[in-house]
Amino acid sequence: MASGFLPDKDTTLLAWSLNFLTRITQTPTAFGLTAVLATAYGTVHGNFAVALAACDPGERSRSIVASKNSARSALKTQARLLANLVDGTASVVDAQKIDLGLNVRARPSPSPAPVSAPGVTVRSVVGWTVSLRLYDTVSSAKRGKPLGVSGASVFSFVGATPPADISAWKFNGNTGRTKFDVEFDSTLVPGTRVFVTAFWFNGRKQPGPACSPVTTFLQGGSVSMAA
Predict the structure, then answer these.
(1) What DSSP state is assigned to residue 116?
(2) Which residues contact 59 (CB under 8 A, 6 or more apart)?
């Protein structure tokens, strides 16, 4: 845990420390600590309180300030140690950490499953290889993956009419890129009609809807370029 939870001003640090000490002393195990640790922290807190009180502006001396600074350093060291123990205890919730005056790490919100289907364009057909480009249909046809999308799953089908059930398609692979090649069986005759479809997925592999099937024809040993 970062040390930024500790106040810089001495009086504010003392007030923070008193709250921290009070709570961990009352229920140390609730914060992943022990009574021994709480007692030890009480000692460094007390030393800092005494040393700070001795720093009366009218009676301040170099040695008194040095003692106060040393006590403050010891308190901060101990506070960081205990804060790390609290932060590393899975049972301690964010509300408890806030009550202690600790920072709470911001947790990134998980990306939801994609809600739109990708656009799929046939870039070219070379022999039995169909080269595709996938793009975001919501923002712009010239852009890549939508925000929150990790990649796409690509499927193919050989036949006159593509099935509605994706399980009847052949899975050709996942890709994190927007360009993908689908390799068809080289025994298929030139002019065979084929279909491809794809869907986006997020970082948790949750899929979105599949796009409408895109069709093209295999060229065998020739080359066909698509717009």
Answers:
(1) S
(2) none
Torsion from C-alpha of 153, 157, 161, 162, nearest 10 degrees: -20
The CATH code of domain 118-225 reads: 2.60.40.10
Q: What are phi and psi of 225, to 5 degrees?
A: -105, 135
User: CA nearest 203: which of 105, 90, 108?
Assistant: 108
Which alpha helices (DSSP H) does the chain contain, by range?
Answer: 10-26, 35-53, 62-87, 94-100
Identify the CA nearest to 208 among candidates 136, 139, 157. Answer: 136
**Angle, helix 35-53 to helix 62-87, in steps of 10 degrees:** 150
**55-97 confidence digits (pLDDT tens):** 876 666 888 999 999 999 999 999 999 999 999 999 999 999 9
- φ, ψ of residue 153 to 5 degrees: the values are -105, 135
Quick one: how far is CA 67 from the chain centroid? Answer: 44
Strands 193-201 and 214-217: antiparallel
So where are the chain's domains?
A: 3-100, 118-225
The alpha carbons of the chain give a radius of gyration, in whole angstroms, of 32
DSSP β-bridge partners for residue 207: 201
pTM: 0.55
Strands 223-225 and 118-126: antiparallel
Cα separation, 123 vs 199, whole angstroms: 18
